[in-house]
Amino acid sequence: MPFIELESNLPASKFTDDFLKKLCSTTAAALQKPEDRMNLSVKSGMAMLMAGSTAPCVMLCVSAIGVTDTAEKNKEHSAKIFQFLTGELGLSEDRIVIRFYPLEPWQVGKKGTVMSFL
């Protein structure tokens, strides 16, 4: 049950339904998770500064159970996600940053309980 949170100073018009579906598909494939388990949110038009510049940028947070817990895994995930974001948004790699957070099943609530019990 991965959580993908994208923050950007790009306008909302860049983040169409088609973009969200492609981001879902790309991140699900990268993390080897089913698309129907993905949770995405996008915050656009934010006031942001990255590396001393307010030029267009993206910060992406990826939180997931069991697939974001090693440098080796995250290196592979990062390459696939960067390829998608640079291609879709026309940003250079230096204008994108990804944070990976491993989650434990007891840290995710669903259906009135936590994933440990589902």
Describe the structure.
It is a single chain. The longest helix is centred in the C-terminal third of the chain and has 19 residues, at about 70-90. Helix 1 runs antiparallel to helix 2. The chain has about 120 residues and is of the alpha/beta class. The mean pLDDT is about 95. It is globular, with a radius of gyration of 15 Å. The strands form two sheets. It has a four-stranded mixed β-sheet with strand order 2-1-3-4, with helices on one face. The protein has a two-stranded antiparallel ribbon with strand order 5-6. The N and C termini lie close together (about 10 Å). The chain has helices spanning about 15-30, 70-90, and strands at about 5-10, 40-45, 60-65, 95-105, 110, 115. About 20% of the residues are buried.
Overall, the morphology is globular
Residue-averaged pLDDT:
97
Please give the count of helices.
2
Distance between the termini: 12 Å
Strand order of the largest sheet: 2-1-3-4
Structural class computed from helices and strand pairing = alpha/beta
Q: Tell me the number of strands.
A: 6
